[in-house]
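Lecture 7, part B: from sequences to assemblies.

Below are the input chains for today's worked example.
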Amino acid sequence: MLRVRYYYYLLYLNFVVCIIEFTPKLIYSRRYTSSLSSSLISLIATCLLIMLLEKHMKPFPGQSIAQIMNGTLTHFFQKSLFFCCLVLSYGAGLIFLISYTQIIHRFICPDISFGLLFGVFLFFTVFVSLLDPKSTLFMLEIIVLFQIPVIVIMILLFLLDANIQVDFLVEASSYLLHWPSYQMIAAGAFLFSGYMNRLVFNEHLESSKPMKLLTIVFTVGLLLLLAYYFIPIGYFGLAGIGNDNDIWFTTTNSIRLPHFFIERFLVIFLIMQLGVSLMFVIICWHTSLQFLKQANLFNGGKLKWFWVSFLLVMSFVLWLYMNDSTVRNSLSWLLNIKLLFDIVLVFTIVRCARKRKAVV
Amino acid sequence: MTSIGVDASEVKNKKYAVVIKISMSKGDVKVIGSDFILLKVNCNSISDGLDQLRAMSDKKLEYGHVKILLFGEGVAKKDIAMAIDYFMRRPDIQKIAYLGIGKPNAYQLLKFKPKEEAVAGSYFFYTFQQSLKHSPYVYAVTLYDASRRIMTPGLDLTIPVMAFQGKDLQINQIALFDKKQLEVELSSEESKILKMLTSGLYNDTLSLKTSNGVYSVTTEKGKANYKITLSQGKPIVIFSIKLKGGLIERLDDAEVITEDIKNSLAKIAEQQIQKKVYELLIKLREENLDPIGFGLRYRSRHFDHSNDTESWSAFYPELDFKIQVKYKFKEN
Amino acid sequence: MWFEGLNKNEDFLKREFNNRNFSILLYYLSTVCKEDDIFDKLISPFYHTELSDDYLKYLLSFPNGLKVTQESEAAEQILDGNVMIYINGLLISVGMKDFKSRAIMESTEENVLQGPKDGLSENINVSINLIRSRYKRESLRTESHSAGSKSKIKLMLIYDAQIADKPALHELKEKLSNIQVDLIQSAGQLQKNIIRSTFNIFPLFMTTERPDRVVKNLSEGKIVVLIEGSSWALIGPATFFDFFESMDDPVQMPLIGQFLVFIRYVALLITLVLPALYIAIISYSPDLLKIQFALLVAGSRMSVPFPSYVEIMFMLIMTEFLIEASIRLPKTVSSTATTVGGLILGQAATEAGLVAEVMIIVISAVAISNFVIPVNSMHQAIRVIRYPLIIMASLLGTIGVVIGLLALIAYLCNLRSLGRPYMKLL
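Predicted structure of the full complex, as C-alpha cells:
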C-alpha cells in the first residue's frame, strides 16, 4: 500500500497538464463572461465530489473497482461501465498526445517529421503504460517533483516581472460577477478530474482522511487556478489572449530567464511539460488497460499483446484521420461528457458503499 | 541572426524591405561574433522576405536569437500592427525581443557598427536591456508588450526611436502610436516626462534657477501614481509624483547650499515638473493617445463592462488632470 | 582403504601412530592444515594418554570435534581443512584449518576521508568478527549457505532478525538455493546469478568491502551475504539512491553531508546528460544557449569535419580506453599513460581541428563527474547507459534526450530489488 501523496500527484498532474494544453483556449474564450466564476464554482463542485468519493471509498481499502462493484451491479453493467471509462481515458490520452505532438513540433523541432515524433511518443507511452501500477506511480512522483520547481520559478518570475501591468489583472478579475455556464464548469471540472484515478489505483493507495485531503486540494487548487488563469493575462492583457491556441507557450516565450545559462524559459518549460504530458498520457492509457484487466480481458500473454498492438495501430489510424479542428471538437465533446460520467461513477460508488453497509 | 529590420520598400509595388543581420562566428575564439553580414530584400510580405533571405545565405537561419526588431519610419507611419502580429505568431522568435523605430530607416541603423561589440547587434540589445535604469529618456518595449498594447483598448503603443546624431547613435525619443500608425514623436524632454510617469525615473538632472543662482540638481529616483475619480460626473486623473533629489551642483557663482536653498529648490522643481507633466498630458489628450493606460485603469475599476469602452472614449477628450508633485532631498 | 579420491594428491597425508595401548590413523591435507597444531594438539597428547577412551573424549572436547560416519562426508571435511582421526573404528574430525588470507587490510576501492579504514577479509570468520565487533545485538543472525554446483562455496547470510524484511529474506534464500553455476568467486558474480537477467545494467545489490557500510545496512534491516574467498559483501535489497551515499556522509555535519550527496546527483546528471545534450544543442537547437555562447561553440566547431555525434563518440571512446588502460597498467606506468592520453591527446586533437575545444571541456566534465559516483558498480552502469542517450540525441535532438531520460526513469521505477522498489523517492 502506498501513501496518499501519490493521490495528490495524480490530481496535480491532471490539473497542470489540462490547464496548460487542453483548456486555455476554451476558458479564455469566455473571459468576458463566465469563465472565472465557472472555474471557481467547478473547483467547489469537484471538491464536493472528491469528498463524496473518498468518504464512500473508505469501506473498500485495497480493493479493485471490480471487487467494489461486485454484488451491487450485474456483470454486464459493470463491463459496460468499464468500457465507457476505457474509451474515455483512451480518447483523452490520444487527443492529448496528438495535440501535444503538434505543439512540440511547432516549438522545438520543426525539422523532425511529425510522424516520426508521434511514433516515438506513441511507442514510449504505450510501453510505459504497460508497467505495473506501482511503478507507474513511482515514475509519476519523480516527474511531478521535477516539474514543481519549474512552476515555482515561473510564478516567481511572473511576480518579479516589472513589465506586468497590474491593471490587466484587476480588469480580468472585475469580470467575476457573471453567471457560470455548464460548458465552462465542465472545462473547469476537467482540470480537477484527477480524483477519478482513485478508482484505478485504489488497490495500491491508502485511503485518505477526507477533511485533510479536501483542505489541501482546495487551497492548492485555488492558488494554482488563480496563478494559471492570471499569468497569461498579466503578459498579454485580457484583449490579447483571445486568438492564440498555444497561449501558454507564447507566454513562457515572453518570460526572460535572467542569470542562467539557458536564456529562454520556454525551452525549460517545454521540456518539463513534455515529461508531465507524456506522463499524463501514460496514466490515461494505463487506466484504460487497467479497466481492460478489470473486465477480465487483459490476462495471458497473447491477449495482452493483441491489445497492445491494437492500441498502437488504432492510435496511428486515428491520428491519420485527425486534424487540428477535429482534435479541438472532440476535445470539447469529451469535456462535456466526462463531467456527467464522473458524477455517474461517483454515485455508483456511493450506492455500492450503501449496499455494502446494509449487508454488513 | 540577431536582428531583423523592416523598412518600407523603395521599389514600387513592393510593400516591405526586410533586412537581417547575421552574426558571424570565426574559428578564433577571441574575435567571435562581432562581424556581421546584412542582407536586404524587397518583398510584399515579411514571411516572403524571410524566405528569400534564406536563399541568400549558405547557413541555416536561426530565429531563436533574434533580439532586436527594427521598423523603419516608413513602415511605422503606415501600419506596424500587421508586422508585430506576424512576429508574435512565429513560434521561433522570442517574445522578449526589443522593438525600435529606425530613423531614417532600419537598414541604416543596422549598418551601424560600434567599435566594440560582443556579438553583432548586442549593442542595441544591451542599450535596451539597461534602458530602465540607465536611460532617462526611453523605456524598452518588448514584442509581447507591443502586441498587448495594440490589442488592448485604452493602452497605446510606444516605441523608442533610434536615430543618428553625427556618427553616433542616439536613443532619446519615444514614438507614440495610435494602435497601428505612428502619430507623434515626442521630443526628448517630453519622453523623459513620459518615462517618469510610466516606468519611473532614475538619475536625471534638472537645472533650476532660483533667486540665489542657478543650480543643477540630480534626481535619483522618481515614481508616479495616479487615480481616476469622478467629480461631478466628470472623470479626473489625480497624479501623485514623488521624487527624490540627490547631489546639487552649483553653476555660475551660485550661493553655497543651505537648507533654505534646498527647500526653495524643491519648490521650484515641483512647479517645473508639474507644469511639464500637465503640458504633456494635455498634449496626449489632444492627440487622443493613451500610452499611460488611463482607459485600461478606468475599465479595470468597474464591474459593469457593458459599454465602458464607449463611455471612456467619450470621457477622454474632457479628462482633467490634477498633479501633485513632492520633491524631497536626500538627507546627507 | 579409505579416501581413494584424495589418495592421488601430493599433499594428502595418512599417518599412523602407535603407543603401548592403542593406535590412531590421521588423514589430512598438509597444505590447508596447521602442522604445528596437529603435532601440539593431537600427536603429543596421544603419547601422554594411556587409554584410547580417554583420548577419544579428549578429541571430542575440541569445539569442532565430531564423529563422522559417511566416507563422502569425511572427504568433504578433509577438503575443508579438518583432520580425520581413525580410532577404535570411529572417524573423528577435528578442525585444524589454516586457509591463507590477507590480514585485515585497508579497503582500497571505497576510500573515505574520515571513518574507519579497515576492509572485509577474504576469510569469512574474520569478516564476521569485524561485523560483530561493530554490531552487538542479540538479534543478529548468521546463517551459512552454499552455492555453486562444482565447488561448494560457503556463503554466510547475515541479518538482524528483528528488523530484516521477511519476504525479502525469503526471496533471497530461495534465489540462493536456485543458483546453478559451477563456480562462484565474487560478490558481483553472485549478484549476477541472483538477478539472472541479461539486459539488466543497474546493480540491484550493493557490493561493498567496508564493514561499516555493512553494519549500517544491517541496522537498516538489510540482508548481507558474505562469500568465502571474497572480501566483498553483497547487500540487499538496495535502492538506486543507496549507491550515491558514501560512508563519509554520516561523518560530516548534516548540512555538509547533504551537500555532498547533492553534488553527487548533479554529477550524475552531468555525466549522463551532457554528451547527449551537446549533440542535441549543436545539431538541433542552438537557440537554447545564450547567443555569445552559441557563437563560441559554433566558432570552435568551424574546423571540425564530422557531425557532432561522431566527434563526441570518438572522444568518449578514447576516454573509455584511457580509463580501462589505467586500471590494467601497473601503478608506476598508469600516471604516465593518463597524462599522455588525456592531456596530449586532447590538446593535439583540438589543435588539429578534429574536435572542438568546447567538446574537450564537455568530455572531461563527463569523465570527472562519472568518478564522483561513490559505488563502482553504479558508475559502470552509468558509463554504459550514456550511449543509448547519445543515440537518442543524435536521432531526435533535445526531444530524444528527454524521451531517453523518461524511459530510463520508467525502467528504473520498474526494477525491484528482492521485491522492494528500486527507485522510489522517500
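Note for the exam: Chain A is about 75% helix and 0% strand. Keep this in mind when comparing with the next example.
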